Amino acid sequence: MEITNAKKLKYSSLILLLIFSLFPCSLVKAVGIQVFPPELKIEAKKRDPIEKDIIIKNPGNDVTLYEIYVDDFSDWIAPNVSSFILEGKESKKITLVGKGKETGVFLTNVSIVAKPLLEGEFMANAGVKIPLDIRIVEIEGRRKMFLAFVSDILNKEIKIKLSFFILSLIFVLSFLIFIVTRRLRRGKKNN
């Protein structure tokens, strides 16, 4: 009796399936990550401090080690904590801090990696990359800042004067309507 290649493949697949079914599924575990917000946008002036918060949650039940870093531009923006441990269902606020060194639009990712703390069991790591959009604008000169400040004050004064004028106009029109309707009523009584 001759065994064909198809039968060999079928028998070897059954043997592998039998071997893997002997291992309990509880030996394989995975860690998880939940992150809010799903993307980050930062706008700042050159040389101004940058701060942006991220909430990281451990959705599983196992204690997990988390590592967080910015893929690019780490010389001027980085998380306030680079690694930390979370219990199951626990969350932590991490703040990205830094200063914009130059003007422009900078696109990168914030990477977060979750690693199991337990050893001896097969555990799978998890990772997330959050898009990070940083926009740094030039600081306005003192003269521009002063003119903007004066313009803002003038705009407020103009708005106050305009509001006062509109209220006065409404009052005068209401008074004129009252006088006209009163004279019309007197005119009907006299006729």
CATH class descriptor of the largest domain: Mainly Beta
**What is the helix content?**
25-40%
CATH topology of the largest domain: Immunoglobulin-like
What is the residue-mean pLDDT, rounded to a whole number? 80
Which strand order spans the largest sheet, edge to edge or round the barrel?
3-11-9-5-7
Classify the secondary structure makeup into a structural class. alpha+beta
> Whole-number radius of gyration?
35 Å
Pick out the low-confidence regions: none
Topology pattern, helix = H, strand = E: HEEEEEEEEEEEH
The oligomeric state is single chain
Beta fraction? 35-45%
Characterize the biggest β-sheet. 5 strands, mixed
SS elements, strand count: 11
Walkthrough of the structure:
The protein has helices spanning 5-22, 142-190, and strands at residues 28-30, 34-36, 40-45, 49-57, 64-70, 77-79, 83-86, 91-99, 104-116, 122-124, 126-137. It is of the alpha+beta class and 191 residues long. The protein has two domains: 27-137, Immunoglobulin-like; 140-191. It has a five-stranded mixed beta sheet, with no helix packed on it. A four-stranded antiparallel beta sheet has the order 2-4-8-6, with no helix packed on it. Strands 1-10 form a two-stranded parallel sheet. The longest helix is centred in the C-terminal third of the chain and has 49 residues, at 142-190. The mean pLDDT is 80.
